Amino acid sequence: MVPGARLIVLGKQGAGKGTQCVRLSHHYVVPHVSTGDMLRAAVKQGTAMGLKAKDQMDRGELLGDDLIMGMVASRLDESDVRARGFVLDGCPRTVAQAEQLAVFLNPVELDMAVDIEVPTAQVLRRLAARRVCVDCGANYSVSSPPLINWTCDVCGGEVIQREDDREEAITRRLELYERQTAPLIDWYRARGQLAAVSGTGAPDSVTRRVIKAIEVRRDRKGGRLT
Ligand code: AMP
Fold it and tell me: Could you tell me the distance, in angstroms and rounded to a whole number, from the CA of residue 11 to the centre of ligand 1?
């Protein structure tokens, strides 16, 4: 049986976290838990939390740690996650969130925090060109659009530019990343849980690098991640 995993994936917006998280979730057969996707679903459903979150999300601001960690804690408490683990995407984004996550997981440890490294100039180009399906979240770009007129190849939904992929919001999100999220790299490194992997090149090569980094750690820990 494929062993499960408890992974978090760090990286600037546009580093390809979402794509790699989907692949890791298939590889290790664990749920992909994306706070951004959960919040966008809440906005779409018009829930109280969604209505509260929308404006801040559109501007590229971070939502409060308590709101985020409450949402994440209840997802991580579900049976699929408890049984096999998770790939956590978009969280933690602050040291306070990482501390709360460690408390929540205790006594079980995270297997690894993977940092996908991509130069800022490259993520800026990727974000400006990124287009997403409003229904299933599939990713496209202006240079690699869906086959038919901005209609999603996967589900037929409308493919658009995310409000927070516009220039002002991108600048703000990258600023917040440097200030609030980048310190997590040293935080996880100090705990011996960090694997830094280059995120440049084709998505398949990045996936191979990430899985190799995870397997090396798995071998060091005696064969199992969970
Ligand atoms: P993402 O798709 O991960 O870029 O998330 C989209 C937006 O959701 C972010 O720009 C934030 O407004 C909000 N968000 C997602 N995850 C978090 C988090 N861990 N902490 C605070 N805000 C978050």
Answer: 13
Mean pLDDT score of the chain: 93
Residue 151 has pLDDT above 90, yes or no: yes
Domain assignment of residue 139, yes or no: no
Q: Kindly indicate the confidence band of residue 224, based on its pLDDT and cuts at 50, 70 and 90.
A: low
Q: What is the largest CA-CA distance in the chain?
A: 50
Cα of 54 vs centre of ligand 1, distance in Å, is 11
Q: Is 168 inside any structural domain? A: no
Residue 138 lies in a domain: no
Q: Are 212 and 196 in contact (CB under 8 A)?
A: no
Residue 211 lies in a domain: yes
pLDDT at res. 37: 92
Whole-number Å distance, alpha carbon 74 to ligand 1 midpoint, is 17
Q: Model pTM?
A: 0.90
Number of domains in the chain: 1
3-state secondary structure 72-112: HHHHHCCHHHHHHEEEEECCCCCHHHHHHHHHHHCCCCCCE
Q: Which residues line ligand 1 (CB under 6 A)?
A: 13, 35-36, 39, 56-57, 60-63, 68, 90-91, 93, 97, 164, 173
The protein residue whose alpha carbon is closest to atom 11 in ligand 1 is 62
